[in-house]
Design goal:
Strand content: 15-25%
Helix content: 40-55%
Number of helices: 10
Shape: elongated
Radius of gyration: 29 Å
Number of strands: 11
Largest sheet: 6 strands, mixed, barrel
């Protein structure tokens, strides 16, 4: 891909799993499944490394306010940060670049020290120009009532695309699953699904699709009642994430070609009229304004009708499409401008060519 997403999708297979409350009612049951799946997936032939993570690149799972100890961040509410939970060598498996420090060990002992890995953007936000390793973070505001434990930064990784390729990277922190609160996994707080939805990621030495059956078999050996929600390669996920953008480019290109063809045909039909106007002394700039103005009026009318219709249509599509906003200001502002510029060129170019033809030649050809 032309845009760097901060990870390497090559030869990575992902499988999405939701652990039901009925079969995994307690935190020890959930953690035992994680350990078993990680061990089995890591030992498969053709697997270089494996990891479990709540949200691989191109996804977001949880957002929280975050406070940095001795931070130079601006005062006010704590900035909102993406939080991912991981088990195993997720940095190596997903091909995320480690900038400083270390990754998580197989089992981090939260009783001795709670740890966190942060992305480069978060480190620069809280401690610009400083070494973030050894610094501490706390979820929530830095107030006496906040009893959350301090987390020690043990690693800094490259920024990863959470909202799709080309988007501005978010602040991002990663914690090991060993620090995930038992009270949540036990559903005492009533959060039935939270912490139970996990993605298995494996980096293979060959085509990852060849391991789909093996991954399904390993999960079935652990629990035959457990169904995979999805299993796909990271390259497929990446392709799906940029599909709307590709569709927009193709649509815009098709419109440009259609506009050029239609306006060129319209100008060609008016060659005699243009020749007569030139022969009668009309200035070329005035003729050019007339032709282009006529085309822009038609386009402006079409854009007005299309914009009004799209407001209603996108309201309905929002309920069907994931993470879409019916009043996307950028789209509604940029697209009409681009289409007007295309239409301007589509009308001006054929008109300029027509003006270069001698009037007598144009009149004789009719």
């Amino acid at each position: 891909m032309a845009t760097d997403g901060g990870f390497n999708p090559d030869r990575v297979l992902t499988a999405s799993i939701m652990l039901p409350r009925e079969g995994y009612p307690t935190a020890p049951a959930v953690r035992a499944f994680h350990a078993s799946l990680f061990r089995r997936a890591s030992s498969l032939a053709g697997v270089g490394s494996a990891a479990l993570i709540t949200d691989p690149p191109l996804e977001r799972y949880e957002r929280r306010g975050l406070t940095g100890e001795n931070s130079v961040a601006a005062s006010g509410p704590p900035p909102t940060t993406n939080l991912s939970w991981a088990y195993g060598p997720f940095v190596q498996t997903l091909g995320i670049r480690l900038i400083a420090g270390r990754t998580f060990t197989d089992v981090e002992d939260a009783r001795s020290q709670s740890v966190v890995i942060v992305n480069q953007r978060l480190a620069q936000r809280f401690w610009p120009g400083q070494d973030a390793l050894g610094k501490r973070l706390k979820w929530g505001a830095d107030v006496p009532q906040n009893q959350n434990s301090w987390l020690t930064v043990v690693g800094v990784v490259a920024d990863v695309a959470d909202n799709g390729l080309g988007s501005e990277p978010d602040l991002h922190a990663y914690e090991p699953f060993s620090q995930f609160p038992d009270v949540v996994l036990n559903n005492v707080a009533g959060l039935v699904a939270f912490g139970r939805h996990v993605k298995l990621a494996i980096r293979t030495t060959a085509d990852p699709r060849a391991l789909v059956a093996s991954v399904r078999g390993e999960i079935a050996d652990i629990d035959r009642q457990l169904a995979l929600q999805s299993i796909e390669t990271m390259e497929d996920r990446l392709g799906a994430s940029v599909a709307p953008r590709r569709f927009s480019v193709v649509t815009l290109g098709a419109f440009a070609l259609g506009a050029l063809s239609l306006l060129a045909f319209s100008v060609a039909e008016r060659r005699r009229e243009i020749a007569l106007r030139v022969a009668l002394g009309a200035e070329p700039p005035a003729i050019l304004r007339m032709v282009v103005g006529h085309g822009l009026k038609l386009v402006a009318l079409g854009l007005t009708v299309g914009a009004l219709a799209s407001f209603g249509v996108t309201r309905a599509l929002t309920s069907l499409l994931y993470q879409t906003d019916w009043h996307d200001a950028v789209t509604f502002a940029v697209v009409p401008v681009v289409l007007l510029l295309i239409s301007l060129a589509a009308g001006a170019l054929p008109a300029m060519r027509a003006l270069q033809v001698e009037p007598i030649t144009a009149l004789r050809s009719e």
